[in-house]
Recover the amino acids of this structure.
């Protein structure tokens, strides 16, 4: 026979009814909503659409947290060659209402002082726990920040990937006097955030592989908003209990993550991707800002004066000279298809002219190779660039082709003094990343990116020269047999 | 230090700091294929996630691509 203690039974019934009541649910269940992007790479044309998506979500969830996992710049000259380089992205992120960004490796493309200035111009926080800039830069980077999102306390910890040199992948000179620390060991130092916050979010520019790998060692983290590897996830994935998100670059997608908490404990995590590219609606204020930046008169700024009109080969020679002068290389080359204007009239050579001449934002790559290896690279580049011989700097080339199939039968390279290039000597050669990639010979050194784009090298060269004259300059001589 | 990765199971060496695009360009050049096709490729990591051409190659030990459907 079952008996009830009436008093205890009544108390239990009351508690059960209270637990099931709507009052209880609304009092203790909370939702955290996050809109996140990664690796926008200066896709400013997508910002009006992103602004509309942010507005729509904010209308539904007023405490929406908006985050970027870094690499906000580097990808569009309209942003990267602005008077204050990369300021357009900062202005647009301010307008959309971002709360924080991680520091991607490309953030360093602005150099230390440039990055410090951009951080001050942003109304959002810049978070990176594993870097320590010298105080002289006055760079206001914080390791983490706490956000109160409608009563949910969220600790956002920023972290960035280090390359093989122990620094993020950018030009080393842009990171002088900035110390970097091992990402995983650094993250572990911030475990105290678990006690301080309802939600711990890692804003990571480590890449998908490390996000998954590290998740096994970070049980106190709830969500990793990731970037760097441009991995397109279908919303998010749960690894070791941690929700991991990431999208491909240039704002094709953003991610909307939802974390449901009951009694300050997370009971559900989910993420969906939202298409940004192709989204028909726009935020008109953001669209107007994009129009302003796109039409900015600073692109008409003269970098140098061309004393004489220039034809394509002269432009190619000028590009190769820029590579050598700005990097200290012995020799240089540039695929012919990479020079995108045919002629230039005498007069001002502007920022816009450089953008038209070299619109690809290729990185400059240095290769240490012998004269013989260079010869093979030039032939490979010719074969893979529609049989157009690359322009060269610090040398001239005599090319003998077979008229039947256009193949190169003989290549003779002469140095600056007109002597045959020493085929055994090792030279430091600089080219653009495309040219090096389409020249995959069996050389010893495949090369290394020097962390600066080729249009930046050309722009710097023109500014340093002031006046240029390439009339009659030739670097190639063709012989048909 | 050269960067090594596999493209459709073929070992490729590229320059340090290369993007996925550069690994594919080298693959196409080595195979004697038209390098201009690279920009239309869909590229995936080993788990089948789509990655874009400008992703850092260092993030991927192996990638595979599919030619676009015509």
């Amino acid at each position: 026979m079952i008996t009830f203690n009436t008093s205890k039974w009544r108390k239990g019934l009351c508690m059960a009814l209270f637990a099931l009541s709507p009052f209880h649910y609304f009092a203790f269940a909370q939702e955290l909503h996050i809109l996140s992007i990664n690796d926008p790479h200066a896709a400013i044309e997508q910002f009006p659409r992103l602004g509309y998506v942010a507005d729509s979500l904010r209308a539904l969830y007023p405490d929406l947290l908006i985050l970027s996992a870094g690499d906000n710049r580097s990808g569009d000259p309209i942003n990267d060659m602005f008077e204050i380089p990369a300021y357009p992205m900062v202005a647009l992120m301010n307008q959309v209402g971002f709360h924080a960004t991680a520091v991607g490796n490309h953030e360093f493309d602005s150099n230390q002082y440039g990055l410090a200035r951009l951080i001050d111009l942003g109304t959002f926080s810049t978070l990176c726990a594993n870097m320590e800039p010298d105080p002289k830069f006055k760079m206001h980077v914080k390791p983490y920040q706490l956000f109160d999102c409608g009563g949910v306390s969220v600790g956002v910890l920023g972290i960035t990937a280090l390359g093989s040199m122990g620094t993020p992948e950018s030009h080393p000179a842009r990171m002088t006097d900035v110390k970097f620390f091992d990402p995983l060991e650094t993250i572990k130092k911030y475990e105290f955030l678990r006690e301080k916050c309802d939600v711990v979010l890692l804003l990571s520019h480590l890449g998908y592989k490390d996000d998954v790998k590290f998740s096994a060692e970070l049980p106190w983290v709830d969500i990793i908003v990731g970037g760097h590897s441009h991995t397109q996830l279908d919303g998010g994935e749960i690894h070791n209990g941690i929700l991991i998100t990431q999208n491909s670059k240039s704002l094709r997608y953003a991610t909307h993550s939802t974390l449901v908490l009951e009694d300050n404990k997370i009971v559900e995590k989910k993420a969906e991707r939202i298409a940004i590219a192709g989204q028909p609606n726009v935020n008109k204020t953001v669209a107007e800002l994009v129009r302003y930046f796109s039409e900015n008169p600073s692109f008409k700024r003269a970098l140098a004066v061309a004393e004489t009109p220039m034809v394509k080969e002269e432009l190619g020679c000028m590009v190769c000279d820029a590579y050598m002068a700005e990097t200290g290389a012995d020799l240089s080359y540039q695929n012919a298809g990479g020079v995108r204007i045919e002629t230039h009239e005498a007069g001002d050579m502007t920022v816009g002219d450089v953008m038209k001449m070299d619109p690809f934002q290729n990185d400059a790559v240095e290769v240490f190779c012998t004269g013989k290896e260079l010869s093979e690279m030039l032939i490979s580049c010719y074969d893979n660039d529609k049989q157009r011989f690359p322009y060269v700097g610090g040398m001239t080339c005599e090319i003998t082709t077979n008229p039947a199939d256009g193949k190169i039968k003989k290549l003779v390279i002469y140095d600056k003094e007109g002597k045959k290039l020493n085929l055994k000597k090792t030279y430091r050669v600089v080219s653009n990343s495309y040219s090096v990639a389409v020249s995959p010979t069996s050389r010893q050194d495949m090369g290394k990116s020097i962390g600066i784009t080729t249009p930046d090298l050309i722009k710097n060269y023109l500014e340093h020269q002031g006046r240029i004259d390439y009339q009659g300059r030739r670097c190639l001589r063709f012989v048909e047999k | 230090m050269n960067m090594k990765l596999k493209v459709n199971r073929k070992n490729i060496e590229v320059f340090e700091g290369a993007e996925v695009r550069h690994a594919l360009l080298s693959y196409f050049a080595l195979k004697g294929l038209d390098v201009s096709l690279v920009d239309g490729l869909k590229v995936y990591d080993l788990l089948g996630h789509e990655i874009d051409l400008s992703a850092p190659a260092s993030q991927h030990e192996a990638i595979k691509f599919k030619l676009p459907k015509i």
Remarks:
- The longest strand of chain A covers residues 265-275.
- Chain A touches chain B through 37 residues (CB under 8 Å).
- DSSP finds 15 helices and 28 strands in chain A.
- The longest helix of chain A spans residues 312-327.
